[in-house]
Design the sequence.
């Protein structure tokens, strides 16, 4: 079965690029441009992986991670953020994020990390 | 009294005519203003729609080129150039889109985006602005060159002393961001003093953009501009170039407060051994501003003996400096300093 990925990102360019790249890699991709929309998609369906920004309108990335790890503990989470502050990264990992990628990022590296996160979940 | 009535009537009619005239005038004014706002909004919306359409086309081209692992197809590029990059506005919109990609992506994507940008001959568009554009367009064009590492040293060198500071500062950042070595070589051409924000941003460019070997910042110490000398002193301290400690030591006797203050900060960062002796010797003749900095350095890094020596000099100081000393002395434990 094709793994289902949700991308939550408020930068349209990054959102569309990631969607394009991951669809090409053979994943089923859904997108949300703010936290509220992302949260409603998470409530409606199940995802193998969620890629989320931290600074999002309405609901922050940290709140989304917390919700996922409480309600869907099997869903992997990759954080994609401009922040490289240690305490923010630590907060994300403490809430259960599986990986953290800092912007600007390498799209090929992100794809590899997506595959690794999904691989970890499968074993 | 009765004879006056027709005259009053005539006047009233005149006033009524005037009021009618004014009402019509203001009505036309209001209607034309509303129409103008509606037309402007409509034009703005149309432009936004056009921008979105162009961005969608641009996004598709960039995605194909970046993610489909194909080499650049000359036919596709030429078609895009012919159909979608006809006007300067379109070229600018697409260039902004490329810059946004560069700000978010790194790795091989960066090189590919530059390749695409040049294949679309947008580098020539940017160079054209640098040659003949308006000053605010030139400032943006220099930023494009910095972000895309487009080499236009000769064109941008001419803008280093532009009358608008927005252009000048972008030119400074360009030279630091795109340099392979000696990023501060451009300072010898400067005629305008650097502002505080320019210094902060230049330092940021040196830390996060410049990738070559660390330059010798002491070259700026002999510059005729005072701000460049201050900047050089600051960089020597920040980048820990302790080998230049003796070169900046004479600046403790400089005429300007700002230079002496920056020298004290730099030498303190470099932990220059003789600094405290120099500072205590100079303290009585210093301005209150410099005295404050000396106070900070001695209280922070001085020995118990040095703090006691400073204490004897405090009564001759400005009242504010005395208060600062008393307030901070309580925070410094003599036992700790002796240890």
Sequence:
């Amino acid at each position: 079965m094709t793994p289902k990925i949700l991308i939550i990102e408020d930068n349209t360019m990054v959102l569309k690029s990631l969607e394009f790249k991951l669809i090409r890699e053979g994943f089923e991709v859904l997108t949300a441009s703010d936290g509220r929309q992302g949260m409603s998609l998470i409530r409606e369906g199940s995802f193998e992986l969620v890629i989320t920004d931290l600074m999002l309108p309405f609901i922050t990335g940290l709140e989304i991670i917390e919700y996922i790890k409480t309600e869907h503990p099997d869903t992997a989470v990759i954080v994609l953020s401009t922040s490289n502050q240690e305490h923010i990264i630590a907060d994300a990992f403490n809430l259960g994020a599986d990986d953290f990628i800092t912007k600007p990022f390498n799209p090929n590296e992100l794809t590899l990390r997506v595959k690794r996160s999904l691989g970890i979940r499968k074993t | 009294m009765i004879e006056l009535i027709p005259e009053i009537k005539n006047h009233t009619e005149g006033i009524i005519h005037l009021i009618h005239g004014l009402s019509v005038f203001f009505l036309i004014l209001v209607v034309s203003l509303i129409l103008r706002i509606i037309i402007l909004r409509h034009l703005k919306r149309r432009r936004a729609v056009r921008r979105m359409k162009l961005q969608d086309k641009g996004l598709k081209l960039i995605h194909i080129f970046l993610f489909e692992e194909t080499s650049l197809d000359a036919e596709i590029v030429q078609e895009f150039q012919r159909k979608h990059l006809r006007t300067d506005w379109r070229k600018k919109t697409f260039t902004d889109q490329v810059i946004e990609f560069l700000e978010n992506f790194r790795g091989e994507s960066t090189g590919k985006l530059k390749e695409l940008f040049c294949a679309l001959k947008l580098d020539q568009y940017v160079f054209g602005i640098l040659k003949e554009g308006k000053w605010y367009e030139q400032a943006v064009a220099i930023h494009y060159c910095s972000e895309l590492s487009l080499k236009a040293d000769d064109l941008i060198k001419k803008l280093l002393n532009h009358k608008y500071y927005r252009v000048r500062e972008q030119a400074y950042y360009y030279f630091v961001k795109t340099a392979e070595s000696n990023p501060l070589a451009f300072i010898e051409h400067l005629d305008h003093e650097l502002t505080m924000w320019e210094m902060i941003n230049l330092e940021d460019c040196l830390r996060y953009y410049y990738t070559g070997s660390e330059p010798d910042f002491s070259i700026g110490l002999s510059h005729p501009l005072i701000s460049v000398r201050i900047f050089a002193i600051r960089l020597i301290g920040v980048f820990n170039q302790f080998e230049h400690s003796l070169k900046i030591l004479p600046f403790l006797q400089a005429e300007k407060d700002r230079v002496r203050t920056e020298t004290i900060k730099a030498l303190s960062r470099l932990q220059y051994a003789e600094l405290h002796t120099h500072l205590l010797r100079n303290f009585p003749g210093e301005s209150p501003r410099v005295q404050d900095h000396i106070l900070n350095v001695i209280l922070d890094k001085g020995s118990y003996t040095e703090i006691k020596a400073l204490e004897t000099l405090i009564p001759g100081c400005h009242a504010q400096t005395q208060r600062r000393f008393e307030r901070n002395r309580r925070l410094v434990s003599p036992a700790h300093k002796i240890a």
Summary: The longest strand of chain A covers residues 76-81. The beta strands of chain A are 4-8, 28-32, 49-52, 76-81, 99-102.
